[in-house]
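mind reviewing this stuff:

——
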Amino acid sequence: MSVSASSLPARPHDPASDESSLPARPGGPSPAELLAFARAAAGDAGLVASLPLDPEDRTWLRLEGPGGSEAWLIGWPPGTGTGWHDHGGSYGAFATAAGALTEDSLAARLPTEGWKTLELAEGVDRHRVLGTGDARAFGEHHVHEVRNVSDERHSVSVHAYYPPLPLMRRYSRTGPVLRLEEVELPQEWR
């Protein structure tokens, strides 16, 4: 099924906003708490140094996040990235501990089911670079891709999600067309 996002309202976007004021789920940490955790962990030089870095593939360590959240310390070799994805309804935050990460995201709430391809409206694309010490929170409908665009330097980041990721939807993108490619379950990335 093909759907057009041109009728979907774009989320208001404030480039300076880190979205940490988004609502929390009852019983879980707030986006602001996840953001504070990601910033603190990214600032822990000993923790960051404990991550083994691979010259070609991303590496990661599972961390104990606040209030039952899922958290990861991730190493990004030059030129690596996530591809377009969402977090299966979880909200979260991430902070760059070393290097810089480029994030491209969509400022539109996508339908979670019932489509395979989607034509995105103009004006929904957002782009930001998060250098060492920069962080952001995001809501449960966030769709993005994160990349280390450096040709020579590793980046390291901390990511936290609540509730723990139930799944991730992976997308491909060609121009304005977003295509759902697969749905990954937790056992596939642990």
Observations:
- The first strand starts at residue 2 and ends at 4.
- The chain has one domain: 23-183.
